[in-house]
Amino acid sequence: MLTVTVITPSFMQGSFIDQCIESVRSQSYPYIRHIIIDAKSTDATMDVITSILGTYPVEVISEPDEGPADAINKGLEMATSDVVCWLNADDTFLDATTIERVVNLFEENPDVELLTGDGYYVDEDGKQLRPIRPLKVSHITLEHMRYSDYMLQPATFWRSNNFRLNKELNYTFDWEFFLSMFEHGMTVLYVPEYFACYRIQDNSLTHQDTAGRKLEIYKTVKRHNDFLPQRAWCLIVYWLYSLAERTRMPAIKIVARTFNYVLRRLTAHRIISS
User: Fold this and answer.
1) In this structure, are 199 and 245 located in the same domain?
2) Would you say residue 272 lies in a domain?
3) What are 34-86's pLDDT values in tens digits?
4) 87 with 181, same domain?
5) Secondary structure string (H, E, C) spanning the chain
6) Which of 31, 83, 96, 135 is deepest in the core (most CB within 10 A)?
7) Which domain holds residue 132?
8) Listed residues 186, 204, 222: the one ending a domain
9) Is the confidence at residue 211, as pLDDT, over 80?
10) Are 123 and 253 in a shared domain?
11) Residue 273, in any domain of the structure
12) How high is the pLDDT of residue 203?
């Protein structure tokens, strides 16, 4: 039987981490190792974790880190299982069958090295808002991933390997991590099944619409995409976002998002700052 490691990076998510832990603990598949890497949270996070330690064999590392990518890398170094994933402290698996279904898919497809599926956006109370699916299955390819991140991170799983995240990134580290696997020729399988719930909440890094995030998008595109109009547009969007934040004129971001939508549609997703 395949073994699975679930890595949970955590920082100041005391309001949600109990739901994350329960979604792992309730899995029907028995061969799961759960590692939580917490960056010395000062909210209720450690109280929640401590309260379940006697009933659930979760492994906890509590120490300062250099950001979420660094925390996940620590978990990856500890993982000795066949299959690995990470589940952020504010996200959950969809239901108790998620890991069992994932393992079955890996066993049925022995050549597959990376598996990704669908999920749902949920609000702070866990209410499902809308599904998260790629517009086209063809977007889950190296060509398209060089333009934008079309994979849902909490619904993505891979066979254990030596890939690690770029800890200099705070927003796009997951995109670059999976993109690197594509570039190294790993076999990727997209399945139209729902595996996870992605929570929309103010403290989520990947949900923040900031110049810092746009800068990382530009840097990632510059490293992995040779299409100059795409590079140029991502840089322009970063400049516009920086201007909006310096001048405190949020309308500039609205204009940038509008042009981004139009360019994405006109160029079949080849010019986009996601």
Assistant:
1) no
2) no
3) 999 999 999 999 999 999 888 888 999 999 999 999 999 999 999 999 999 99
4) yes
5) CCCEEEEEEECCCCCCHHHHHHHHHCCCCCCEEEEEEECCCCCCHHHHHHHHCCCCCCEEEECCCCCHHHHHHHHHHHCCCCEEEECCCCCEECCCCHHHHHHHHHHHCCCCCEEEEEEEEECCCCCEEEEECCCCHHHCCHHHHCCCCCCCHHHEEEECCCCCCCCCCCCCHHHHHHHHHHHCCCCEEEEEEEEEEEECCCCCHHHCCCHHHHHHHHHHHHHHCCCHHHHHHHHHHHHHHHHHHHHCCCHHHHHHHHHHHHHHHHCCCCCCCC
6) 83
7) 4-204
8) 204
9) yes
10) no
11) no
12) 65
pLDDT tens-place string over residues 143-160: 999 999 999 999 999 999
What's the pLDDT at 41? 94
Confidence at residue 82, expressed as pLDDT on a 0 to 100 scale: 98
Query: Is the residue at 271 inside a domain?
Result: no
For residue 273, which phi and psi values (nearest 5 degrees)? -110, 95
- For residue 274, is it within any domain? no
Q: 62 and 82: one domain?
A: yes
Q: Decide if pLDDT at 274 tops 90.
A: no
Say if residue 15 is in the same domain as residue 148: yes
